[in-house]
Amino acid sequence: MELIWGRKSEIERANWRKKILAIRKKNVGNHFLYVSGYLRNWLVELADKYKKRDVFPLMPMTLLPSYYEDVRDKEIAVFASALLDGKDDIVHRVSSFRELFDDRPWAWFEQRKFVTIAIGTNRYKQTGGVENWRIAKLFDKLWNDCFFSTEEEQLCLTNSSTITIEEVVRSTAEEMNHSYYDVLMSYFAELSLRKPQRTIRLMLLILSRSDGFSLGLWTIPQSELKCPLLGKETQLFLSTMFPNYRRAFSVDEAIALFGFERDCDFFYAYLGYKELQKRNPAVCSRFATIYLGWFDLGVKHKPKDWRKIIPDIEF
């Protein structure tokens, strides 16, 4: 009887904790929505204007694909540059990968030339700061999924002239009942990415969207796109706009409250605000300080009051 009662008590305690968290989420969320009305509209405008710029931050996943025209070349470039995410000296590293591909990424991939860089001691050498064995392992798994039929247990190269990586990923996702995120993560699972969650989310954003710096190569459900907002710097931005979100919400839950048409647009708002900070740090610092005071007091201000403190969106 004691054991049964103990189990019931634990279940009751778990249910009680859920109720408390639900109440806390409601209170914290309503407080944020009440105070930040004008701010949320401003952030949406900031993201929209930033996406219309012609100049974007230098990232491996946007720089390397920009050198190619063919869709499949771009896909290979995005996968390869994911191994460079978070590294410095981007231009030099990207140039090393261009030399490796010999300006024909898909042909390099289709002909399994990645095998040669992983033979003998070459496997421990680096291309663009990435060990060759990691490059070979990524593309070997991808090549097998593209060209190897597990049902017939033979090579099927008849469709190699038309197949795209998007088709392979979609087919795998449907067959395994997985998300695109899960399928992409499986390719990099053993490759020790510095920030795997951020990298995969950024890959999906770049591959599937057609605005901002995205390439618009893939068509996937928008619900699968999550904001690649990870790391101390970007979470500091979220804490500035939603100071006490950690009391009740995860990062994704907090972002959903801002009311963007797509949650991943919050990433563009972050990049836009980062640019405003470079151009006018004093105004941004003053805004953050005053807004924090308003938030702590729970005061809802009129648009004219906001316009006195919020930075002008000028790029």
Topology:
Layout: H1 2-35, H2 37-51, H3 60-63, H4 71-82, H5 90-101, H6 105-110, E1 126-127, E2 130-131, H7 132-147, E3 148-149, E4 154-155, H8 165-176, H9 180-188, H10 196-208, H11 232-241, H12 251-256, H13 265-279, H14 281-297, H15 303-309
Antiparallel strand pairs: 1-2, 3-4
Could you walk me through the main structural features you see in this protein, from its secondary elements to its overall organization?
With 315 residues, the chain is mainly alpha-helical. The chain has a domain at 60-224. It is 60% helix and 3% strand. The protein has helices at residues 2-35, 37-51, 60-63, 71-82, 90-101, 105-110, 132-147, 165-176, 180-188, 196-208, 232-241, 251-256, 265-279, 281-297, 303-309, and strands at residues 126-127, 130-131, 148-149, 154-155. α9 (180-188) crosses α10 and α13 packs across α14 (281-297).
Features:
single chain; 315 residues; mainly alpha; 4 strands; 3% strand; globular
Per DSSP, the total helix count is 15
Elements, N to C (H/E): HHHHHHEEHEEHHHHHHHH
Averaged pLDDT, please? 88
Helix proportion of residues, in percent? 55-70%
Please mark out the parts with pLDDT under 50 across 5 or more consecutive residues, or reply none: 150-158
Lateral strand order in the biggest sheet: 1-2
Q: What is the rounded distance between the termini?
A: 70 Å
> What structural class results from the helix and strand content?
mainly alpha
- Tell me the fraction of residues in β-strands, as a range: under 5%
Note the overall shape. globular
Rg over alpha carbons: 24 Å
Number of strands: 4
Largest sheet: 2 strands, antiparallel
